[in-house]
Amino acid sequence: GQNIDQPTEMTATEGAIVQINCTYQTSGFNGLFWYQQHAGEAPTFLSYNVLDGLEEKGRFSSFLSRSKGYSYLLLKELQMKDSASYLCAPMDSNYQLIWGAGTKLIIKP
Amino acid sequence: IAGITQAPTSQILAAGRRMTLRCTQDMRHNAMYWYRQDLGLGLRLIHYSNTAGTTGKGEVPDGYSVSRANTDDFPLTLASAVPSQTSVYFCASSTGTGSGANVLTFGAGSRLTVL
Predict the structure, then answer these.
(1) CA-to-CA dists, residue A108 to A10, A15, A82, A87, B14, angstroms
(2) SS3 label, residue B30
(3) What pLDDT band is residue B1 in, cutting at 50, 70 and 90?
(4) Do B42 and A102 touch (CB under 8 A)?
(5) Cα-based distances in Å from B70 to A35, A38, B20, B103
(6) For B71-80, b where at least 16 C-beta lie within 10 A, e where not — what string?
């Protein structure tokens, strides 16, 4: 079966760094997406990884290891506005996204 | 403003009633999707359409139907609503369906409560 595992909730301090992990098992693999979702709002695209390694985009970076079925999202210089849920979504062999339940990130001053 | 418009934003519905959630996009995206989001669960795909005139079933299609008469519109219909269909429904679209073309743009969501 297909399965996504990410922590339910994490807490971090403003200005710090946090890493949100995601492990996955899918039928085939065509890349992995990360989305951000603020409470009561729609998800918005953060990153897409299809090859192994780290992709950096400003304060946010995303890492992928296909052999380990593992990805992480790294957020640096945390700001209060980064308080949100972060959704991990690998794409299977049919190009369908398989969504994790999301990690709720709480930022404290 | 380019994007996806969903209506209604929120609705309370009696069980057994028929309900259509509307979704319109103005980005000329080929693919459109309907998801439901429930607390503690990931987004679950209900139905999708890779291009106008075609539709397909997702992970949880039972009790729902869709149509794609043109590129812009993708309504979702609940023929006879049941309480388990209480959820937040998101419409989304993407330029294509392969790999990096699958970046989804989401509508603001429709919160449906079935009593």
Answers:
(1) 11, 10, 10, 20, 41
(2) coil
(3) low
(4) yes
(5) 28, 31, 17, 21
(6) bbebbbebee
Q: Over the range B52-62, which residues count as b (16 or more CB within 10 Å of their CB) and which as e?
A: eeebeebbbbe
Put simply, the answer to whether B99 touches A50 (Cβ < 8 Å) is yes
Q: What is the length of chain A? A: 109
Dump pLDDT digits (tens) for B24-49: 999 999 999 999 999 888 899 999 99
pLDDT digits 0-9 by tens, A85-100:
999 999 999 888 999 9
User: What are the pLDDT digits (tens) for A21-62?
Assistant: 999 999 999 999 999 999 999 999 999 999 999 999 999 999
- Cα(A55)–Cα(A94) distance, integer angstroms: 24
For residue B8, say if its preceding peptide bond is cis, omega within 30 degrees of 0: yes
**Pairwise CA distance, residues B17 & B40, whole Å:** 27
Q: What one-letter code names the amino acid at B48?
A: Y
Tell me which residues of chain A have a C-beta less than 8 Å from any C-beta of chain B. 4, 30-31, 33, 35, 41-45, 48, 50, 87, 89, 91, 95-102
In this structure, the strands spanning A32-37 and A44-49 are antiparallel
